[in-house]
Amino acid sequence: MISDTPTSNQKNKNRKKGEFIFQLFIAGNTPISIKAISSIKAIFEKYYADNYTLDVFDIYEYPGLATTEEVLAVPYLIRKKPLPEIRMIGDFSDREKVIDELLILTK
Amino acid sequence: MENKLLKSPSGIKGFDDITFGGLPLNRPTLIVGSIGSGKTFLSMEYIINGIELYDEPGVFMTFEEKTNELLENASSLGFNIKKLIGENKLYLEHLEIGHNVSKEAGTYKIDGLFVRLEHAIEKVKAKRVVLDSLDTLFASLDRNILRTEFKRLFSWLKDKKVTAIVTAELGDVFLTRMGLEELIADCVIELSNRVTNQISTRRLRVLKYRGSAHALNEYPFTIDENRLTVFPLISQGLQQPSSSNRIYTGIPQLNEMLENKGFYVGSSILVSGTAGTGKSSLLAAFAHNACMNDQTCLFCAFEEAPNQIIRNMRSIGLDLQPHLQSNKIQFYFARPTLQNLELHFMAIKEIIGVLQPKVMVLDPITNLMTEGPNSDVRSMLTRFIDYLKTQQITVMFSAAITIGSIARSPSDEGISSMVDTWILVEDIATEGERNRGIYVMKSRGMNHSNEMREFIISSNGITLLPVTSGKGGMQIGSKRIGAEKEMIQPNSKRKQQAEISSDSRPNL
Hints:
The structure holds two protein chains of two kinds.
Chain A: H1 6-14, E1 20-26, H2 31-48, E2 52-58, H3 63-68, E3 76-81, E4 86-89, H4 95-101
Parallel strand pairs in A: 1-2
Antiparallel strand pairs in A: 1-3, 3-4
Chain B: E1 7-8, H1 15-18, E2 23-24, E3 28-33, H2 39-54, E4 58-62, H3 67-76, H4 81-86, E5 90-94, H5 111-124, E6 128-132, H6 134-137, H7 143-159, E7 163-169, H8 180-183, E8 187-196, E9 199-209, E10 218-223, E11 228-230, E12 246-247, H9 252-257, E13 263-264, E14 268-273, H10 279-292, E15 297-301, H11 306-314, H12 321-325, E16 329-333, H13 341-355, E17 359-363, H14 375-390, E18 394-400, H15 405-408, E19 421-430, E20 433-443, E21 453-458, E22 461-465, E23 469-470, E24 473-474, H16 477-486, H17 492-504
Parallel strand pairs in B: 3-7, 3-8, 4-5, 4-6, 6-7, 14-18, 14-19, 15-16, 15-17, 17-18
Antiparallel strand pairs in B: 1-2, 8-9, 9-10, 10-11, 12-13, 19-20, 20-21, 21-22, 23-24
């Protein structure tokens, strides 16, 4: 499901649950926020199955986090693990781009 | 009262004059300019002045310079930012879109900026906010979405009741890269930095100010170790006082040519002539005389160093040294090419503020116009002369002209129209001699003499001789002496005058 290249396959097999850790920053309960959450979840479910963690923060509730994580535009996704960090802006409606940016290898 | 547009004063010298009070209160203002045009500095000074002069805390969000770099830059310019941050009056933050941020995958909002701004404004209870520079921050993102978001930002800022400055770089198609000028409808200010004749001049112009009058011209401004200063000599021409008091020229015979009273106080006098005709001497005589009458004088020298002037003038009986010691005369000596004309004038203005001179001489003005009197320099000079008029300072300046230029266009030496009195000194070459002639080309508001007089500089000072007519018109130099000798009746009147002038010189 994840990848068919041997090295990648090997890696993914060894991964424990929650190896992919993401933070998603949204601003309020807006249509864009809702869309972002559902789009990204769909992608994660497909490619990471239950091997990921996604924490969603509303920047209006966590203004301090917005500063420390340098959030300016929302929705804002940070891949905390594995390193390097990857940061992405948008509601993730551009599915191809998300997959491309997160270096997810597809068939 | 409700209709009146309230303003937020910048406290910047000259800026509040041209905007008639400052920036529009609780509205965003766009400052646009190329790299290095002074946008950051102007914004920073607006914030600092807000804290120091008006007790209004401020938020400075920078997107270009790192916080510590900005701190260094600002403190090198004399701002004590750390202290203000410590007192919780200033909030400074460096914002960046973040490293490793890929382009947007779908639509987005910039609420992150809102949240962080809100936090900052709340923290210091800010009344003033700067976003420097907004378009570079989001330069990589989709412009169409950004425009909508910026619009939301500006109305959000209005709701927050803060006066904001948003800076942006000059764009190619629009004024700014993202067309911010269309979104910020209230006030747009343009800064530029142009180089003419290898001298760069910063300029400021208010492009738009909704609901308010503003000065329309481009005004030069400077940034020095202290502060930013806009140099607006605006609309002063209308309120100039015109004095009917008179001031002596320093040369009795020249006074005679001017109704025996000399110049008007607060007027401007141009002495023009070719090289070596004695312009500087005339200026020195005027300065010397003013000092003798207990008036302070500012001597602006662009050609000779003060010591050299003192030495040279001593050789013609004008000792300026005692005046220097008694502080009646002060020199401003600078090479014209050292800095631009505005800076010279500003430095001079600064001295005027302290010295409060009654008299000023500028020698020579043409050195300031290295490439000939162009309109730029002329308007600058006109405004400067207007300023001197408002201060009731009588100014005499010299202009070196080339042989033949008078014959070509006698009334337009570029600067002649802006002066009240124009004295021309001329070199008259006849029969192996060069002699000096002087006449008053014009002198507004008085019946000046139309004579040309011979003009003699000796160790006793400057003397003007009356016209001696003889065969073939005016007699000058050795011809005049010959004509005098030929006369059976000695011209006692002229002799007397010459004696009086040389004797009375120190007691002018």
